[in-house]
Amino acid sequence: MSFKKVKGGVCAPQGFRGGAVSCGIKEVGNPRDDLALIYSDHPCVSAGTFTTNRVKAAPVKVTQAHLRAMDLRAVIANSGNANACTGVPGITDARQMAKTVASSLGIRQREVGVCSTGVIGLPLPMQRMEEGLHTLPTKLTRDGGRQVAEAIMTSDTTVKEIAITATVGGKKIRIGACAKGAGMICPSMATMLCFVTTDASISKACLQKSLLEAVEGSFNRICIDGDMSTNDTVLVLANGQAGGKPITRRSKACREFSEALQHVLLELAKACVRDGERVSKFVTLNVQGASLYLDAKKVAEAIAKSALVKSSWNGGDPNWGRIIHAIGYSRARIREELIDIAYNGKAACEGGLMAKTPLKTLRDIASRDQFTITVDLHLGKADYTIYTSDLSPEYIDFNRSEYAYWKNAGID
Amino acid sequence: MSFKKVKGGVCAPQGFRGGAVSCGIKEVGNPRDDLALIYSDHPCVSAGTFTTNRVKAAPVKVTQAHLRAMDLRAVIANSGNANACTGVPGITDARQMAKTVASSLGIRQREVGVCSTGVIGLPLPMQRMEEGLHTLPTKLTRDGGRQVAEAIMTSDTTVKEIAITATVGGKKIRIGACAKGAGMICPSMATMLCFVTTDASISKACLQKSLLEAVEGSFNRICIDGDMSTNDTVLVLANGQAGGKPITRRSKACREFSEALQHVLLELAKACVRDGERVSKFVTLNVQGASLYLDAKKVAEAIAKSALVKSSWNGGDPNWGRIIHAIGYSRARIREELIDIAYNGKAACEGGLMAKTPLKTLRDIASRDQFTITVDLHLGKADYTIYTSDLSPEYIDFNRSEYAYWKNAGID
């Protein structure tokens, strides 16, 4: 299947509009947008996946409830404050965000998804957001996709948006999406904010199934620091404006849609890794030859989360010893003497021992901005791929203190 | 129970001698000792605990086999090379180390424990070690404890040794010990090299039980980077020279011995955290009020391993939001609205919400070299304590490359 990239991001599919305003949530007086709205002029079917963290932010709880009750056709999202660990007032604030927007848009409160990202534990500055929540619905435009993508950024340094056309069930459809996420990226569920729109005509069952599959193949396979956020959310809205009979589950068209959706999400997931907080390498980690899928996954995640392995990537050191030691504590079934490890196909370790490839060759590969590590366990046929990054001194430095946020919120 | 510190480290108990030589394992021509030997002039009972990493270094496999067959009365250890992922030749080398030393000492090969620590994947430079292995047994002295402790150091910046006298079963006994370990420190089994000697007269059953308990309460409760080595080993040798009837299991004396041993190991374990590679904080993490012991442990380990939490400690940021987010993904049973988090007893989070303690008070505590974080889940009575550290930009920088080792070994 081939996809054609188009412009417009999350507003590229027909019938979607977006916009953003600045409410001083990130910083009082800072003109950067921090409140974004996506809206479909037509009713949608919708689906979502959420963080599996047991500490869930208020907007996650509210959006999950809304999704259970109705289909979403709008998403209101703020950056700069996660509205997490904010108790009952936090729930009230998240509901109020949906309510204000819904009333301006003339839709029901439960048709609005709510998302927040930023610092944990601070109440939302609802007073400062009041005006923005009222005026934003009047400022939506067909080319507001970029504005939305920019407004949800926190520590992100690049805008993450994509839109494609694809032929699904013989019909040309569009999928648009934007995402944010730079730290707290870990393989387990959604792992950041991502909003997807499509004009495909699709059944709810097919949409849900496609989303779960696409997230499993994309956002669940990236790892920056091994942490998992309280706010991770992926929402998809489909308004059917491309026309035609709804794509139903178990159809060829559903598989085609699923593939297109995964392509979109994987592009964004990789963009999140590339933009990992102050990291410098993009590493594709292929684990092959495991007895079980879960073993392949355990091995990949142990390697991708090891501080020592990630430090060596930062230094361009093809340190297969640290990789094999992480494989050893992954709890997967392994046999040390069967393990092969290669950098861009060049053997670093064969049968658990140092391979004959000159160290210089391996060092050349490991010093590049991106490379692929292949681990073959030679026990079976299961495999798993993770996209991950190094861990840099700058990452630690960048994450040393959130004091500025607290000070900005008047807490000292 | 009170213990009195004495001098002499691992050679403090009666009948033990030690020594070390330089073989150029760490670096050719480097005069730093890198081969150490501990020997008891009398037969011993012995016990050991080892890494649970499925990739085990050759010396671990060899020492486990020796311990199954006989009681150890000598330990030969080298630093600079882990003899891990070295295949059958690695096993041969480890056996050869034991054999050479045993023959000089006039004891059996299987009475010698073998340990290695350093870089993974390189063969031991046996040729350079040959002379040292032969001459070291002739250079042992009663005051060689310090030399042994220094010779096993790798990235350690402080010597880690201790010796105490204790009254066990009415008899005065001595316990001496030394340890190394600065990176790759993670709660799960032994986690570094540690050699313990005692002149207590003790049954093998009591010694084994005491060691397992003491390791569980010490080395299994420290965490620097969440990595687990291929070589971790704790060995204890008891030669009975303090006299008296052997201490048997289930006796009051066995409990007293166990307590004394745990005191010794906990001191060394804490010293390892304090000397964590380029880290700056010593954090005691108490998790209380869990339903189950395993829940308390999961919560403590999730916090202690979180790169984001550790970064905030580095910055002196009392960031309870990151702590609660780690609690949320720990997979322990929790209720967000019941969680309290305190720094040195000052509430940072109460009932899952920001507490009223002024931020300045918390920042003052978090900016100290050491502080205690208490997490109360308010669900039950189970608790767990971990000793851990921050993660620093310098840690990453320090671990970026092991190329110097490889170059030193002639591999380029």
Describe the protein's architecture and organization:
Two copies of one chain form a homodimer. Chain A is α+β, with helices and mostly antiparallel strands. Chain A has two domains: 4-274, 4-Layer Sandwich (L-amino peptidase D-ALA esterase/amidase); 282-391, ArgJ beta chain, C-terminal domain (Ubiquitin-like (UB roll), Roll). Chain A has twelve helices and 17 strands. Chain A has helices spanning 58-69, 87-105, 126-135, 145-151, 204-216, 252-274, 293-305, 307-314, 320-328, 359-366, 393-398, 403-408; strands spanning 4-5, 16-21, 35-40, 45-50, 74-81, 112-119, 160-168, 171-180, 193-198, 222-223, 233-238, 282-290, 340-343, 346-350, 353-354, 370-376, 382-389. Chain A has a seven-stranded mixed beta sheet with strand order 10-17-12-16-13-14-15, with helices on both faces. Chain A has a six-stranded mixed beta sheet with strand order 1-7-8-9-11-4, sandwiched between helices. Mean pLDDT of chain A is 92; it is low at 186-191. At the A-B interface, helix 8, helix 9, strand 15, helix 10 and helix 11 of A face helix 8, helix 9, strand 15, helix 10 and helix 11 of B.
